[in-house]
Amino acid sequence: MTRLLNKMDKILLILAIVMFIFGLFMIFDASSMKSFMEYGTNTKYFTKQLVILIVSLIISVLIIFTPLKRYKKIVPVACIVITIFLLYLIVSGVETSGAKSWVYIGSFGLQPSEFAKIGIILFAGFYYRSNLKYLNTYLASLIPVAVGAVFTFLTLLQPDGGTGLIIFLITMLMFYASPVKKEIKIKTTAYGTIFVVIVVLILMISGKNIFSATQQSRFNFLKPCTRYEESTGYQVCNGYIAINSGKLFSISPGNSNQKFLYLPEAFTDFIFPIIVEEFGLIIGILVILFYMIIIYRVLLIAKKSVNVCNALICYGVACYIGLHVIINLVGVLGLLPLTGVPLPFLSYGGSFALTLAIALSIVQRISIENYNYMQKKVLEK
User: Which residues contact 24 (CB under 8 A, 6 or more apart)?
Assistant: First the structure.
């Protein structure tokens, strides 16, 4: 293990561990009141997240020890399984918070759409490398886009617009970063835009709503504190109150007022305002800086990667983390509609924490393989 540790990106490893631990502390802090009101104990959500993180650690160690090429045959099968689960949710899923997004195993819920994100990243990476000589043909180039489109469509039907948007953006960003011919990328963008416009026009003419009632309400995101009695206005305005209460620098862990059921999603989507309220704006900025460093380290590993597959997977993971951070924060700050997207490392959520750990472990495995390749080249000289 020590030999592998020396080949890993230590800055990325340390920052990930620090962020997961800090996130676990914040989940305990922000969820304690709701946990007590619902279960009679203030540690229920903390315990669930802790169990998931322990499971994630075990899986991460296994991934780091396993050569990436061994996943080549597993990934297509995993994508089929994810598709089956997404279809099952639409047909027989139980609606929770306005969406059929969860498969329950006892008291634990798994969100297949979260696994779809890492699924499309791995599928696209392996596919583009295995089919390099066919990427000058239109049909062969669009297979990963088609898989991503299926994941996106099935996720939107739940309906889960935030997750669907992220799957779509990851798919397209990896497509643009791939070795596919420039002409094919331009045509795909043009045809895709025309198709979306036609579908939207048909739905509008037919009188059908593109978005659910809950999703429609989220488009009213401006001036939240003047809409305090509305759900989106209430949430965002209380987020503003939490951020304003934190001042520039504050050390008062556990002393948030908004976590006392004023902010409904204090330990999930709105964890960032609680952090600022308890630790101040400086710590909030430091958290964002940590995200930027993590994404930079992932991109650095991508740049050093020895093949297209490894580079694309790292690009996909960087997009995955970056999109979550951007979409969560712009929603919390009232700059765009709320989407229910969790904040990496910090928000409560077992499926997201597990898939994030898997994604970062794969990046670390790529770092190990980059190191081994460079060492081999040095020995050959």
Answer: 46, 49, 50, 53
